[in-house]
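Lab meeting notes turned into a lecture example. A postdoc, R.K., suggested we walk through two folding results consecutively so the class can see how the record format repeats. The first protein's sequence and structure tokens come next.
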Amino acid sequence: MAQQQHRPSGRVVVIGLGGTIAMRPADGGGAVPALSPAELVAAVPQLADTDVEVEAVGLHERPGASVGFDDLDALRLAVEHHLGAGVDGVVVTQGTDTIEETSYLLDLTYGRSAPVVVTGAMRNPSLAGADGPANLLAAVQTAASSEARGHGVLVVFNDEIHAARRVRKMHTSNPATFRSPNGGPLGYVVEGRPRLLNRLDHRPVVPVPAEPPHPNVGLYTVTLGDDGGGLADAADRYDGLVVAAFGAGHVAQPMVAPLSALAARMPVVLASRTGEGSVLSETYGFGGSESDLLARGLLRAGFLDPLKARILLHTVLRVTTDQQALTAAFGVAGGYADPTTWPWPDRQATARSSGT
């Protein structure tokens, strides 16, 4: 007998941060934030046909490009507040420009089992084929589903369910912009029900204190003919640096010395600018290869793309600067080390046992 698919039900809070999903053209010009979360919910009449009770609250109204780290701290506290009040899941609506970063940062600091789903829109409500209502409906259905529990923060777009740790924005205007190059989507929303085909075996969580300072973490993209001159003042500007290198983790020979000097002074993470695949560790041996740079103290990003690697480094540096902890964190999050070596207790296991 086929397994019965249960209809999502319960209480879900929609927290609005602005973005295209909440925009309208202003005085004949370009789109700007204009709609409240309550108006977004009211624009999806199909929500009334579900067994989900939806509450809408606003945090702020900004374009995705203007969301900052302090906003994410406020969002994290708001999510904890509503889940502590007994809701079954949370949906966050925001601008798509930064979803791949904000969702991962929230996921790294979220230890509960209840689903948190991030969504938005590529076409504002005034355009033909606006995708916001469909994305919001699918996000609510996912947040209310028992199928989504235990997977942390998810991104639901175009009826696809993505893990925050994998998802990337891959197109400037296509509604199918969000993809997960390394691993694919976890599942899909089919006839109003989330269907997960893949499951996360481990979800690392960083126990961030209440209000630690935000470190300044830079991102440097290596380019053809690069001699490392752009790194001259990096040690004075940053607390940590992510290097988006060529291919499997390579730089030109002139960059080796400045990167080695930086790695002796602060954490420097070696990522790949390609956007898919893992940084290698021992395939190449020339000066500026991945094995050469790792031997000089750079940290290996593994499967984390440069944007995700920057978010992980930022989050971990709020807790510790210990080199051993940083190495272990990138090993697990980057997908090349035993999950049991994660530097902090498995809060997700605690959440599963308590049902929160």
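The second example is placed directly after the first for contrast:
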Amino acid sequence: MKIIHCADLHLDSKLNANLPVDKAKERRQELLLTFSRLVDYAVKEGVEKIIISGDMFDTKKVLTTTKNAVLRLIKENSNIDFFYLSGNHDEDNFISSLEDEIPLNLKVFTEEFKTFDFGDFTISGIKLTNDNYITFYNNVKLDQNKINILSLHGQVSKYTVDNPDVINITELKNKNIDYLALGHIHSYQKEKLDDRGVYCYSGCLEGRGFDECGIKGFSLIEIEDGKLNSTFIPFAKRTIYEIEHDITGKTWGQIIKDIKTELSLIKDTSLIKVVLTGEHDLDLEMDLFYLTSILNNDFYFVKIKDESKLKINLNDFALDPSLKGEFIRTVMSDISLSEQEKNDIIMCGINALNGEKL
């Protein structure tokens, strides 16, 4: 028996915080297409169950086209059971809009603890709410002679917290759980639950922003001869990277060359954020627009963030009679400003004095 555990697809995400309008639209479509590819993978590999542990959608206002595409995938693959648990972003819009049209192969977890029994293994789940998040642990009663999978959505903790989005992992120990299928955290994590089972965040299928860097995919569960094993399967169309690059002591030409070398092993389909760090001299002529432009020719999308510091020795300008010298001395001696503020003000001022755009 093969089972896919995925979560946090966040279909219909806006994705416009970092991306231009055209690429944000394209990435929204790619999120849906990746789920479609997941179903194709399931058919090809003989997967019989797909568990979606919350946040399939990003908002309660799901586009009709997106909802219909998901529904069509489920209906057209009636030999696969889909287990749907809504998360804190879903707000039940998808299921409530189906009314009496819920396909037989779509199994929905509600606010009541529910178990689907398949003979030698079970799949259970519950949507955590303000009314049940403290008491539901008492309802987790699973047969010790079966392989038991439990689906939940939330942040694990070792303690009870006054929040329905937090799961007390301690309360789930010794409950005959073999695999706790979790959603909410967007990176893959698998840890030991107790002497019997594990808990696992499958992570999201596609990273959406630079806070979701790294390899993304799903967890493939296999049950054979009374044993359960799971493996992470990388699956995203695009990978998101954040790279720090120290520019200390380098010329602008060397910086560009070194960054291109550093990124040379990354696929051109990727999204990359390059963060410039270290210190630079006042006379370093940085052109972030140019750097962004040439890197965007090599990758799907590139963003540059300058976090480098301006290296200034006030003694070098102590006797400088020029306007620049006076300006730098005034800013550097202002005790009300932080070092970052001084850095930003001086760079802005120097650009203005040189006739550059601010």
